[in-house]
Here is the input.
Amino acid sequence: MWGPKPRSRHLPTRARLAVIGMVLLLPAACSGDDPGPGLDARVGKPASSAPPDPRAGIPEVGQCHLLDPNAVNVIVDTTDPLPDCTGTHTSRTFHVDVVPPGTTVPVAEIAFEACAGALEAGTGLDSAQLLGSFITWLWFEPTPEQKEAGAAWFRCDVVASEGEGELIPLPTGTATGDVFGGTVGPAYKRCIRNGGDTDGDGLDEAIHVACSGEHDYEWSGAFDPGFDTYPSEDEFFARAQDECGRIAGTEDWWSTWPSRDAWEGGEHRISCFRAV
Here is the structure.
C-alpha cells in the first residue's frame, strides 16, 4: 500500500525508430534503387519528459471539503475543495507539507507526527480542549495521477466524528487557526451516556456522545497518572479514584483512559466526567 507502484519496461523511442528504419531501407539496399529522400531521415533525440514535481496538485491550507463518510477509511481524497467555507463542510485543511526526498521513514509516520503536532495551531484549541472533544484529524496523500507527476505531499484536515465514520459539520465562516472560536461547543464536546451492563460483567458501558444530545456525564478535565509503562485497568481506575472526584467536582463521576495504541502514541491522560 505504501510502496512504489511497479513500472513497466519498454523499448526506447530511438531504438524502435531505428529498427523501423532498417526494415524500410533493406529492400532498397538489396535492389540498388535510390531509396528516395523520404527514407533518408535521421532520428532525433526523444522529447524530454517534465521533471518530477513534488508539489504537483498540492492543496492549500484553509480549503474546505464536504467529505464522504468513507473518508475516514481512505488516504486519497478525490473531492474538489469547496469555493469557500461559508457553506456546509466537514473538513478543513490546516497543514500541508512535502515528504523530504530520499527519506526512508514511512509517509504515514511523517504525516501522523506533522498532523498531530499542528492540530492545536490549526484549530485554535489547546490540548485539553481537544481531548475533551470529538475533534480530530485525517490525512490524505496525492492521487495516483498526481504521484505519476512526482507529487510527494500530504494534507492534514481537521474533522469532528462522533461515531464510526459519521462526520459532524464544522463551523462556517471562521478563520483557519481559529476554526472553533477558541471554545468547544456542545456539538463537538465529548459526553457519556450510560449504556448499562451489556455483557454481564457488572460494569456499565460508556456510550460516547456529543453533549448536544442526551447524556449523563460531561467531560470535566484530565490528568497524567504518572505511569512509566502501560498499566492495568485496575491501576488506571485506582488513579482515577484519587483525582476524578476533585476534577469533576461531584461524587458521581466517570473516568476513561487511553488504549494501549493511544498510550504508545503518546496519550497518557485519564479523562474525568462529571454527572449532570
